[in-house]
Amino acid sequence: MPSAPRPGGLDIWHRATLSAQIAALMLVGAAFAEATENDRSQSERGEYVARAAGCMSCHREDLSGGYEVETPMGTIVASNISPSLAYGIGTYSRNDLARVLHHGIAPDRRLYPAMPYTSYRGMTDADIDDLYVWLQAQEPVDEPPENVTDLPFPFNIRAGMMVWNWLYLTERDLPPIEDPVLYRGAYLVNHLGHCGECHTPRNDFFAMRDDQYLAGEVLDGWLSPNLTSDLVMGIGAWSERDIVDYLRTGHAGNVVQAAGPMAEFVRHSTRHLDDDDLAAMAGYLKTLPPVWEGVQDIPAVLPELARAEPEHRYGQIREEMARALARPDLSEPEGLYITHCAACHGVTGQGQPQAYYPPLIQNAALRRADANNLLQVLLHGVPAGKLDRAPAMPGFAGELDADQIATLANYTRTTFGEREDSALTAADVQRVLASEEEMPAPLRTLQVLAWVGLIGALAILALIGWWVTRRRRRAQPGNRQEV
Prior knowledge:
It is a single chain. The strands form four sheets. A two-stranded antiparallel sheet has the order 1-2. Among the domains are: 39-167, Cytochrome Bc1 Complex, Chain D, domain 2 (Orthogonal Bundle), CATH 1.10.760; 304-434, Cytochrome Bc1 Complex, Chain D, domain 2 (Orthogonal Bundle); 441-472. The protein has helices spanning 9-52, 55-59, 94-103, 117-120, 125-136, 161-168, 180-192, 196-199, 240-249, 260-268, 275-287, 317-325, 332-340, 342-345, 364-367, 372-380, 402-415, 426-434, 441-475, and strands at residues 68-71, 74-77, 105-106, 109-110, 217-219, 222-224, 251-252, 256-257. It is mainly α. The longest helix has 44 residues, at 9-52. A hairpin with a 3-residue loop joins strand 7 and strand 8. The termini are far apart. It is built from 19 helices and eight strands. Helix 7 (180-192) packs across helix 11 and helix 9 (240-249) crosses helix 11.
């Protein structure tokens, strides 16, 4: 017979059982807390990847899309990448996202290379994992972008991207770099930050020319300058601190400021990166071999020791303007400058750096042989908030005519940009104002051949239809001839 439990034994057993259950619950709770912490860390890493990859530059801060990329073939609109089930990527699996980033293939369509999958092709699995977790955790935007991608025939047939990928989608291995800092910089520049997508010349079929990698390109009317180490054509005269400051704030050394698409990229992407990554990018860019490409004739940015220190006379600008405007020998170009620019940039171009009005003395925008970016800014201005603490600059497209804007550009380039001469005309201003790129001849030929092929195919189908109909009519009993 089993022995009776000792007095208090049952109570001790209950207490032991309860203690074990509490311990188990504590272990489960700790494991759950650890898992939650890991998820939060992965989501935070995913947001950092999204920033480094510039996702918000095209798809907006809420991931709703809508940014328009003007190409010679037409307008490509960034899609909704919020986790909306109806309009975004809410139904995507992790592998779906990987195919988009590595191959440009979404579950429902092929993408155009305006989405930089040719560079994202080098993204690591870990970064894709983190990015996927973060994207799926965001608030869905349950509406499509206001506009849609609109390309003419035959470029609107996305299946044609199969041929483009076969021709141009190649592996983009990083250079063999032993230094882990420079290797990280190479990864950020070449893959995650996809710098080459804007700063590399394109061939007639919109593929990057690898032999001119990072040698500069004009896109949508804006010059994306040479990023190689050439002292004249590229950024060889920039210090690593210049590059870090530029990527962090959009301006550096009082001689260069970001504008246009680059200002957007700084605002939504690079200013969110940590100092180590920005330093890694700067260090890697300084190691790139020089590529001589373009029309630059003097360094756009001078070395630090050769830069003029602007005279800080903020309180005297109004008095200087009044004296200058009262001069009897005031020329028309100087009068235009003093009337429209001197209040912010100073009569002598000294600027007001403490108020974030940049000096014009030795300013890169005025020193460049290609004046596209200068004319873009004069025409359209720079909205407030584009750069770190920078105020708005008004555009003069509605106030000055093309001749006056050309005159103003010529005056500032020769007076403050140290250019020997500048001969911009109203036609140059009108060209930038239109900012429409002509379709390259090979693409135009392809389009014509596609239309000829389509019309020919329709004609053949119509002929076949006529022949079949005629045969059927002849085969009917009432139409047969008796012998």
